[in-house]
Amino acid sequence: MSVISRFLTSRWGPIITGISVGVLAPLLVFWGNPGNMGICVVCFTRDIAGALGLHRAGVVQYIRPEIIGFVLGSLAAALAFKEFKPRTGSAPLVRFLLGMFAVFGALVFLGCPWRAYLRLAGGDWTAIFGILGLVVGIGLGIVFLRMGYSLGRNRPAPKAVGWVMPAIMVVLLVLLIVEPQFGRDAEGNPTGPIFFSTTGPGSQHAALIISLVVGLFIGFLAQRSRFCTVGAVRDAILLRDLRLLYGVLALIVAAFVTNLILGQFHPGFAKQPVAHTNELWNFAGMALAGLAFTLAGGCPGRQFFLTGEGDADSAMFVSGMLVGAGISHTYSMASSPAGPGVFGPFIVIAGLVVCVIIGLTMREAKV
Amino acid sequence: MSEIKTVDARGLSCPQPAMLTRQAIHKLEKGTVEVLVDSATARENVSRLAKNAGWTVTIEDKSDGSSRIVLKK
In 3D, which of A132, A104, A111, A107 has the Cα closest to residue A355? Predict the structure, then answer.
């Protein structure tokens, strides 16, 4: 066991994780997940928000087992290697806001960094503008880091605090399996508490057990290897450290090859699955997301993996993502394949302003 | 005996522990730097960064789960 762990914490760890994600994500599409969306951490959080009734966009509602697996797989790894350390207190409120704005931006692009790379590897060239935006957003975050930006220190928390997020995930798994329905309205529509799409991307999913096992496996690997799709770019620019970047490159190459083998590589700009062709807002949406992720210390996947280690600050970020997804789809901020939503451009600009203010004002308190 | 510079990176999120270490060893060029961290990720990142910059790294793990990383050049 310790040999495997040493291997995963070495420079090979992110590469092994990247290859695993790159092979498994297109396979999940093959097994039923939406196109180029084998894994999309933001989209899946959005689907969970919809399933819980936090938004009523009927086509994107499902409790994604991959996310549950991410947290519980990371928890298993953290417990096995004595890295389960409940902690909190590093500006939780700001992290909540950053989670919200990261999702606002990502849902204008229609994907998190994971999906941006997976879309590229599926031949969706509109992802290029998103990835460019992501890099610019991360670059802006680095400028703030160099200026002394910090959300301050966390501190050890009671053990029970670290178990809250895993417990929520277990509850989600129970809701997914039991699918409780309290009744139907006059038109025969379910009144909840759980909503599952019958059409659209939310209705497309691999079998529960497959998605859950893939999530657990990736969660375990990523906790050990510290895989992060935003840290990859950040560390390469800021620290000249390419360890995580090799992981992302491995992901793209592995996903490209797997898509080719499965007949899922369709190069072009137009008519890509769950994507739109507006270059400007693909770019700007991801710039906002990249900035917010960088200010919060990592990509959405990494935030979920950290909750498995007991990090309650990451859990606040993830909660912000969930609420942000609800708001995004309730107030026409999220894009659709037709293009940006009515308030999409507005929220991207507002989000950039808020994140720049956060970047300029947050400094470690001197005691 | 030359002075030991201390970087206290306990409780800070990525990439700050590695960033603060990088700033400290860049300024110093030679000498001894001790870095205090309390997460496995920071412990790995700081050690890797220092090794890549040609510093020798010694790690003392403490019972409270934190580590003292001593960098020498």
Answer: A104
